[in-house]
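Re: the multi-chain job from yesterday

Posting the exact lines I submitted so nobody has to dig through the queue logs.
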Amino acid sequence: MSYIVKGKTADWELVCGLEVHCQIISNSKVFSGASAEFGGEPNDHVAFLDAGFPGQLPVLNSTCVEQCIKTGMGLNAKINKHSVFDRKNYFYGDLPTGYQITQLFHPIVGEGYVEVETEDGKRKIGVERLHLEQDAGKSIHDMHPNKSMLDFNRAGVGLMEIVSKPDIRSPEEAGDYLRKLRSIVRYLGTCDGNMDEGSMRCDINVSVRPVGEEGYRHRVEIKNVNSVKFVMQAIDLEVHRQIEHYESGRDFPQETRLFDPVNMETRSMRSKENALDYRYFPDPDLPPLDLTDEYIDTIRKNLPELPEKKKERFMNELGLSEYDAGILVADRETAAYFEEAIQGQDAKKVANWVMGDLFAALNKECLSIHESPIKAKDLGALVGLITDGTISGKIAKDVFEIMLETGKEPAVIVEEKGLKQVTDTGAIEAMIDEIVKANMDKVAEIKAGKDKLKGWFVGQIMKASQGKVNPALANELLEKKLAEV
Amino acid sequence: MTDLTDLTLSETLKGLAEKAFSSVEVTTAYLKKMEEKRHLNAYITETPEVALKMAEESDNRRANGQAGKLEGIPMAIKDMFCTKGIRTTAASRILSNFIPPFESTTTQKLWDAGAVCLGKTNTDEFAMGSSTITSYFGVTKNPHDETRVPGGSSGGSAAAVAAHMCAGATGTETGGSIRHPASFCQVSGFKPTYGRCSRYGVIAYASSLDEPGVLGRSIEDCARMIEVMMGHDPKDSTSSHRDVPAFHTMLDKTIKGMKIGIPKEYTELVPDNWEKAIQFLKDEGAQLVDIDMPHTEEAGMVYYVVSQGEATTNLARYDGVRYGVREEGKTLDEMYMNTRMAGFGQEVRNRMILGTFFTSAKGYNDYFVPAQKMRSLIKQDFDRAFEKVDVLFSPAVPIKPFTIEEAKHGAAKGRFNDNYLMPSCLTGVPAGCANNGLQVIGRMWDDATVLKVLDVVEMMK
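And the result, structure tokens for all chains:
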């Protein structure tokens, strides 16, 4: 295990589990007809139910159910045919009914796993459960000197809470688990995975123990950490804080803490002694959710290809290396772009262009792949032009630059700029004749054994043709001419 | 001219159909009666302008040959039903300024059938009680003896029906809140099978028990109203998809050959007309069967745990933040406490505290889970009984209405106040009270038979 923290008294290892809240992609909220869209003016997307009006009743949105099942399948998890909604009770201004509808006792998705890759190789991180619940609204405390404002647009949006087992042993594993999870939900279209917009949020459970010790020690929960980098930093900070406490003989409470990325520290939020009793009990407004095998099977049949499967296919069928395949499947858009670009083209060559020139260009412009000025099929066509000898690899680089600027199709650019490779041997021979005639002295040197000068001749040919001659062809014809002279 | 308010709902419908009088005339007569009897405090909110406008529209529809099933009938609505644009309080200070921006499904169905809204009737606060004494708007007086309570929680509706201040009324039951005041006010009351009437727009007390229903001068009147209110509602996930029969056409006045069960636990205390009623059923050709309901005694405790547990979270939304009355405080928590302290009456607060305990981590395992198990056993009592008989028959409330003074000193907590009513609420079966205080309980979804037997019971002289 690579992440072992050497302390004064022992070597310590991390025991960590993540609770990830994913906002479900759906048109309307999980129990009301209001729009679930992100943004809008405050309180634009609020049904009476979302504002907790008397007499309002929840009606389950079947899209949200489907999204949970899809995600469960992406996590290789058991889909529970019977699940039950519970009320989680607490008072807060942005929780309009005074309780959140969630699933404590019988979640819709049971045990599964996510495979992570670290320096030590592949590991399966267990998933304990996935349950369906409502999001809360937002409290805004800085709009008025002594009042808090409430925005219920988010109140009632469907959430999937994905709870991992305490299987994570390093910050890197936590980071990769989160990235994998994000990639899975994006592939499935069940959550957009934007941590900075809060549509994916992470709570971290951290404890440490001396290497070799069985069982778990005091656990600290770090709430609402909103980027992969912060999650990794927060874990590392908390591990060291806990070790310091143990080694100096000080106790620390089982508590909830907040991560402060500015001061790089975690701070106490509330201790376990003040922990709330959420008084969970089954919601009498909602009958248990019972799913049929047919329903589950239909969803399984229509499931899109997941990253792991796609990666295998890229390796086995397209002959890509594991590393390249891994990069190309890491996010859904890149994979989709690549797959569109390889239609009828050499997949390996396309892969090189995507990961090389395209990624570099996008990086430079800070663009994501779906904002790429070069369409996938055009990049494929460019590779096609090289393959069929229409242009050389060198000219292709120039064409790529023009495509980046103009968004034009490569064939059009080649036509307009006259970049077509000269394949007319007669024309090339004429060109060679001229060059040879003008440089008979150098020909003599070659004849005398100075072979290196052949390269100089090829260079002259390329220059004269503005790079449009296929270098191999130029070589061949030059040899022929020199033999004749 | 006869007083139009003396006609039953069914008679009024006939008169309207025959153009003997108009809805505006009937409505005006009821509004006058409401004024005369205002001291009974049956209504929290009267809506004369709305009523006359609706009556006028009803008369127009009838003139155009578009009469609905309750065309022109003036009705009172328990103040637990949200009515769009009309204040709806649940008889609580916390909602004393609440005007719903939406209509409950069941009242909408009544208006769609042509009924006219006279106003909103008194109830115990959030329907928690059986006397209306916990209402923020004061107690309702029993029209038959004004020193006594009308029963509850639908006491305002029962009193309004008894005093002819409406042709019929809606009520809600959680632990007997329709049958209890029906018995105390000598009117008819019917609670359908749980899931028959949508709960959308009905202010929740205990969601797994709450069922909207009706009170009227006769079971036929009740049948006419309830068949309009029932039916599937996509806005209520617990609402049934079953078809709704035209109950009022199924009252065939005979119980010959029917098997009627008499639960011995329901006859520990009986009213004066009990022996006569038993004889009457025999004379009508019914076969009476003695039934054991061994878990009856436990129903009261189960009811309190379940209803208070559910109520405490249903009422958590009344926090002064978005609607209703707010009492300011220095912090959010202080505002909550001030609002809920001043907004809820003592009885509601007591039930909140108990309900919070019953659903706490400890109370849940010690009380809530055992209560749910006992609830299943009570249900089994009914299942076994209905293997042998078609319906169960018993007194609704074997005691006489207590005085308002007695109610203030806890008379409603007496054992015989509601122990014949609660088991049927916990199981969701249909049940009703005839206008002579006798109750009939039926199989799940067999609302028709319950109404049919009750209708016969009302023939007893």
